Amino acid sequence: MSEDQAHLSFSLQQRSRLHGLAYKMTESVTDAEDILSDVYISFSRQPFDQIREPERYLVRSVIHACFAILEKRKNVVYPGINLPEPLAYDRFPDLQKNDISYALLVLLQKLNAVERAVFLLRESFDYDYDEVASLIGISEANCRQHLHRAKEKLKTGNARYSPTSLEREEMTKAFLLACLNGDVKQLETYLSKEITLFMDGGGKAATATKPIAGFENVMLYLTRGAIKFGANISYTIKAVNMETGVLFENTLTADLDTVLIPVFNQDGQISQLFGIRNPDKMKYLT
């Protein structure tokens, strides 16, 4: 096997996990793919037989590239709620092996960059503390502290319901029908009283810029939107980030208008509803 073939073969073996790591760190498919491309170029320039631990070389490179991107973002003010970039299962089936559920991505937003890296390397890659510390460039004691803080931040206090994909699809269809019909009684069945709706327009699409909390407020927002846009909107249901996503298309322009991602609680009701209208974040859904 030639030097180039050795680099390529090893990189392809690791690609799925590395892609998942970069995506969960940056919450952006575009950034994750750019990182993997840059890391591969750097990797391919090193004599393969002189790289003592190729996997750790790649993981370390990806992590520090993610740190650089997240550091740059600190100076960027995002208009309104900033949600992770969703992606369709059929476009990235390999990524689904790496637990990229939308609910997890949103939870990870509670963590700073180092906490997120420590958590992912311990939980997803199953590295020991000394290995994680070495990859990130911190002490082992500091690594343990970061993981403890990360787990504390990620505690939600509520058990999450995990219906089958068929159950999710049936419940989502029934919920959508209730919205379109303005059926408040039916919506009470599907929406938790403590539901919170998060909408991301990115300053490019009109939407709520703050979370909408409580059944009545969310119900009004959804039913008014359905009445206002219903005649010009069609929808399809498809797997998005290991969840059941609803893709709304503008029938006049044939453009993707909105994606809604419901998350169910232990009672089988929607406790969180994530909506993305920022066109820059919907390009990996169709």
Which secondary structure elements does this structure contain, and how are they paired or packed?
Layout: H1 3-26, H2 29-44, H3 54-73, H4 102-108, H5 113-123, H6 129-136, H7 140-154, H8 165-181, H9 184-190, E1 191-200, E2 212-213, H10 215-229, E3 233-240, E4 243-250, E5 256-264, E6 270-276
Helix pairs in contact: 1-2, 1-3, 2-3, 5-6, 5-7, 6-7, 8-9
In a nutshell, what does this entry contain?
This protein has 286 residues and is α+β, with helices and mostly antiparallel strands.
Which keywords apply here?
286 residues, alpha+beta, Nuclear Transport Factor 2, Chain: A, six-stranded mixed beta sheet, 10 helices, elongated
Q: What does this protein look like?
A:
By secondary structure, the protein is α+β, with helices and mostly antiparallel strands. The protein folds into 3 domains: 1-76, Orthogonal Bundle (Rna Polymerase Sigma Factor, Chain: A), CATH 1.10.1740; 110-155; 165-281, Nuclear Transport Factor 2, Chain: A (Roll), CATH 3.10.450. It is 49% helix and 15% strand. It has 10 helices and 6 strands. It has a 6-stranded mixed beta sheet with strand order 2-1-6-5-4-3. α5 (113-123) crosses α7 and α8 (165-181) runs antiparallel to α9.
Order of helices and strands: HHHHHHHHHEEHEEEE
CATH fold descriptor of the largest domain: Nuclear Transport Factor 2, Chain: A
Radius of gyration: 21 Å
Q: What is the helix tally?
A: 10
Overall, the morphology is: elongated
Task: List unreliable stretches of 5+ residues.
Answer: none
First-last Cα distance: 38 Å
CATH level 1 class label of the largest domain? Alpha Beta
Q: Beta-sheet strand percentage? A: 15-25%
Give the helix level as a range of percent: 40-55%
Q: Describe the largest sheet.
A: 6 strands, mixed
Please list the strands of the largest sheet in the order they lie side by side. Answer: 2-1-6-5-4-3
Return the structural class.
alpha+beta
Mean of the pLDDT scores? Answer: 88
What's the number of structural domains? 3
Looking at the overall shape, the CATH architecture of the largest domain is: Roll
Quaternary structure of the protein: single chain
